[in-house]
Prior knowledge:
By secondary structure, the protein is an all-beta fold. It has strands spanning 3-7, 10-13, 18-25, 33-39, 46-52, 58-60, 68-73, 78-83, 92-99, 113-114, 118-123. It is globular, with a radius of gyration of 13 Å.
Amino acid sequence: QVQLVESGGGLVQAGVSLRLSCAVSGRTVSTYAMGWFRQAPGKEREFVAAITWSGGRPYYADSVKGRGTISRDIAKNTVYLQMNTLKPEDTAVYYCAANRGVGGLTQSGDYDYWGQGTQVTVAS
Length: 124
């Protein structure tokens, strides 16, 4: 199966930028798209962004459009999420996920594999 490991989270001040990384291993040839989700305490897991593995086609949630950039480096088997102008409402655990091409890309149920998550805390 596909294994995912997130990194790059931490405690930051509002207004700064952060880049999260997701290292992908396993059967990557079966992966159609990679996604980023986030979940704050007491809230449902929320779609952030997705990208097709082969073509690099990005998709964004309205909440991060203009501030977030998803990208992937095929040679390094890594997916990135660049977040600019961070706000306190961006505080959440950020998860990387892999989709095998069945269904959509914007809901948790669309993904087959998940990482353990990385905490992002934005202080005012």
